[in-house]
From TrEMBL:
UniProt membrane topology term: Multi-pass membrane protein
InterPro entries (UniProt xref): PC_trans
Organism: Prunus yedoensis var. nudiflora
Lineage, top ranks: Eukaryota, Viridiplantae, Streptophyta, Embryophyta, Tracheophyta
Keywords for the protein's UniProt record, in alphabetical order: Lipid biosynthesis, Lipid metabolism, Membrane, Nucleotidyltransferase, Phospholipid biosynthesis, Phospholipid metabolism, Transferase, Transmembrane, Transmembrane helix
Functional pathway: Lipid metabolism; Phospholipid metabolism; CDP-diacylglycerol biosynthesis; CDP-diacylglycerol from sn-glycerol 3-phosphate: step 3/3
Official protein name in the record: Phosphatidate cytidylyltransferase
């Protein structure tokens, strides 16, 4: 009768075998005797072997050592997960550390690539905006209208996002599209008529009528979000057109005017509106850049919960950069002539940019998104780039028009 061989693994290291006793099993019908080997737990590690078989299967004698080695190899292959627990834990730990290092390197490379994109497209946008501002007239107005149309579309998409619609009813899509077109037409009307008040009031009336006469149950949330869209995306940007194209008083003391080519308008091209717009744009750029760098270097105290990444330290550095830029450019352009007026203009530009940025951050936070869009690689959407300019145009125009005697000339 065939006998059975088996070995049982309790631990992780094999041990040599020793013959201790011989007995016959009376329950087996075969007359052949069965050899039973039991081994003491001689320590070769953490592995206990138990073998039961006939004499031929044992293979003792001169080749006993090689048989034992083969047996140990078989046992090691039979239960690999039981062997080398410490080494396995070390390998797993090394794998985790390697994975973490690879993730850190990948994240660093991704941030570096994103920073390069931001710088590249930021310089391209800055150069394009500078050319448009210098051109003025229909070129400037058409660029503002295009930006307003895209920004209005992004705004109404934010209003329709899940984070906002969970607590309100968004306006219908056809109303959103009509409002986007109306917002884009407002800068053109401002350039042609000089005033926008009647146009905005008429547009708000027709939009309100469309919402109230829609099918279903009109909601106040629809009306309020749509009216704010008309004001935020359409009415406020029109003040940049009024500032750049409406204030046509010549900046007589500006040295750039005397050397400006006749083909591009000559000295008359350099108006108070052009100089004020250049100083305002440059001050906002300086404020954003200095606030970002100052926050990275010194930022410790959060400014507000609306935008957790903004800090008081970065804000103070941004304020200093904005005022310094305003004063420096006022000396270069010889406008405004008063140093106190230049400092006040810098303060006004800074606070307009900060609260415009926070307003858009509040909308995005309620919408549950990081960026308003993905139009500009590395920068997000149009609203992410022009949020600092939304309120600043109205403040700058009011300051120059109302508070500066003779427009600061």
């Amino acid at each position: 009768m065939a006998t059975t061989s088996y070995f049982q693994l309790h631990r992780c290291s094999p041990i040599p075998l020793s013959l201790s006793s011989r007995c016959c099993c009376p329950c087996r019908p075969s007359p052949s005797k069965t050899l039973v080997l039991t081994r003491p737990r001689a320590k070769l590690g953490h592995l206990d072997l138990l073998f039961d078989g006939n004499r031929r299967a044992l293979g003792l004698g001169r080749n006993g050592a090689s048989a034992s080695r083969r047996l140990i190899a078989v046992a090691a292959r039979a239960e690999p997960e039981q062997l080398g627990e410490d080494n396995a834990h070390q390998e797993v730990h090394k794998g985790h550390k390697l994975s973490m290092n690879e993730d850190a390197v990948s994240e660093h490379q991704q941030k570096a690539s994103q920073l390069k994109k931001r710088i590249f497209f930021g310089l391209g946008i800055g150069l394009s905006v500078g050319i448009v501002v210098l051109a003025g007239g229909w070129v400037f107005t058409a660029a503002v209208a295009a930006a307003v149309f895209v920004g209005a579309r992004e705004y109404f998409e934010l209003v329709r996002s899940h984070g906002i619609t969970a607590g309100m009813t968004p306006p219908p899509r056809y109303v959103s599209r009509v409002c986007s077109v109306i917002c884009a037409l407002m800068p053109l009307v401002t350039l042609y008529r000089g005033q926008i008040d009647v146009s905005v009031t008429s547009a708000a009336f027709f939009v309100a009528m469309a919402l109230l006469l829609q099918r279903g149950n009109p909601r106040f949330a629809q009306l309020s979000s749509t009216m704010f869209g008309l004001f935020y995306c359409g009415y406020l940007p029109c003040f940049w057109v009024k500032l750049r194209c409406g204030l046509a008083a010549p900046a007589l003391n500006t040295s750039f005017g005397s050397a400006w080519p006749i083909l591009f308008g000559g000295q008359a091209h350099w108006t108070v509106g052009l100089v004020a717009t250049l100083i305002s744009f440059s001050s906002i750029i300086a404020a954003d850049t200095c606030a970002f760098l100052g926050g990275k270097a010194f930022g410790r105290t959060p400014l507000t919960t609306v935008s957790p990444k903004k800090t008081w330290e970065g804000t103070i550095v941004g304020l200093g950069g904005c005022i310094a830029t305003s004063v420096l450019l006022s000396r270069i352009f010889c406008w405004p002539k008063s140093l106190l007026s230049a400092i006040a203009f810098g303060f006004l530009n800074f606070f307009g940019s900060v609260f415009g940025d926070l307003t858009e951050s509040m909308i995005k936070r309620d919408a549950g998104v990081k960026d308003s869009g993905s139009l500009i690689p590395g920068h997000g959407g149009i609203l992410d780039r022009v949020d600092s300019y939304m309120f600043t145009g109205a403040l700058a125009y009011s300051f120059v028009k109302t508070f500066l005697p003779l427009y600061g000339v």
